[in-house]
Amino acid sequence: MSDTPAASADSAPETRAPDAQAPAEKRDFIRQIVREDLAQGRHQGVRTRFPPEPNGYLHIGHAKAICLDFGVAAEFGGVCNLRLDDTNPAKEDPEFVAAIQDDVRWLGFDWANLRHASDYFDMLYLAAEKLVKQGDAFVCDLSAEQVREYRGTLTEPGRNSPWRERSVEENLDLLRRMRAGEFPDGARTLRAKIDMASGNINLRDPALYRIKHVEHQNTGNAWPIYPMYDFAHSLSDAVEGITHSLCTLEFEDHRPLYDWCVEKVDLVGHPELLQPLLDKGFPREADRPRQIEFSRLNINYTVMSKRKLTTLVTEGLVEGWDDPRMYTLQGLRRRGYTPASLRLLVDRVGISKQNSVIDFSVLEGCLRDDLDASAPRRMAVIDPLKLVLTNLPEDHAESLTFANHPKDEAAGTRQVPFSRELWIEREDFAEVPPKGWKRLVPGGEVRLRGAGIIKCEEVIKDGDGRIVALHGTLDPESRPGMEGANRKIKGTIHWVDAKAGVAAEIRLFDRLFSVAKPDDESEGKTYRDYLNPESKRVVAGFVEPAAAQAAPEQSFQFERTGYFVADRRDHTPDKPVFNRSVTLRDTWAAQA
Ligand code: ATP
Ligand code: MG
Asked: Whose CA is closest to atom 3 on ligand 1?
């Protein structure tokens, strides 16, 4: 959007999270400031807010802001509000509002109050009249283009608007008529009277209100004028009693204007401005907030602007906001990212004022670390090849006991069916093995995970010479618990019982972009040109019954294959659908 500054980050990727060595107690500069403020008695308690604009779905960058805003409040016994920054009526959509709330809760946080910037429109208008009466704001008739001409540049001061010296009476009259809807869009603005020569362009008599005859999702047609971001944001913070207003670095240059608004309006000293809110039943809780900036989360191989994520959806380049390849929180969730893995990412990355780009492997590493500890193990075959154990009777049926987790006995056990016909992974067999091969070859032996040692006796091919099945024998002395089970064998492979296994759709996802900097347009290309054609592959596999029974969103490690999640929307026990969340190892690092 146009009112808020754009962010950029251009440094080399960080493969090691900057704060990796930090002690469990979080010691970043923001928490230091909060600790000090409380120790000095500057505030009675901590209040923060997370203020998304409801013009799109939240993305992984927002996870950093959410964890910080809600996390700091919780750690210091304070509260955090969710405030929908809905000052820009044209762009907002209730679908986004619902998704934002869903995402914040999913990440594990809850808000003290759900607020809208539009809740404060009456108060903001009274504040605007107060500024006019104090001689701190004026109604300006310059067009948008003229305002730009008068503004000056980074090296040249601006010029005062010819309307700057209007009398208080005239300004008040015009502001009231703006509010009454007498003027067309863009005819006038209310501007702060600060300093057209300021080195900080944000202080060159910035607009506080603009005329916009547009219906608003919450206030309907009550307002033909809408407050500008800096004015609304600072005073929304003040009226909610926010003590620490945490935001990203691109707002640093706006801080003097933020402070100016808070000071000149002085909600704490002018409780009469709060009357419209008290009348609506809001509590009295104004404070003098302090804005503190931190660096954005940037991750290579991703795009993180709402605008670009929106384009991917509207142009059909992905399959919706929650496409598992998207870097929206909804997409990551559907991909199998857990709330704990994203909180871990934010902790590992840390909070600082240093702009940096985090390597994608840090994100994937957080998911692996979380799922390694928490995800039950299952067996699934994603490229099935039939193995027939010819020395077992046709009706052989067994149920083997498997641990759900190798390092966590409390995770319990499950039963895995085993019979004469099995599925194994096509890539676990090689007719002509490469050097160092440890898996199955003609005439060779391999251990079937948890079942015994088998020998490949015969390779069955179709008319085109394609391998369609293997015939083999199970060593009866190698069954679980037997002496022969400990016989030394080089390779162990996973398998799924062919009779009891359930056919499953398995979606193999990979990075959406094939280059580290999809935002880089220097080659005359855009992020659209860098979409990874291999980012989604769908295969037909088989899973053991205990995997098919999963609830949607249940994560597993499919042994030797990767971490997978039962698709949130499409999975059912009869027709299982699993998404690959992340491979077991970083295959991209191996390529590079
Ligand atoms: P985008 O630039 O992607 O459209 P935005 O900054 O416009 O996002 P907002 O809804 O205004 O989105 O953001 C809500 C809050 O989230 C703000 O406080 C903003 O600073 C923070 N935020 C947005 N992107 C990031 C990011 N990449 N890292 C950390 N915080 C972020
Ligand atoms: Mg923004």
From this structure: 305
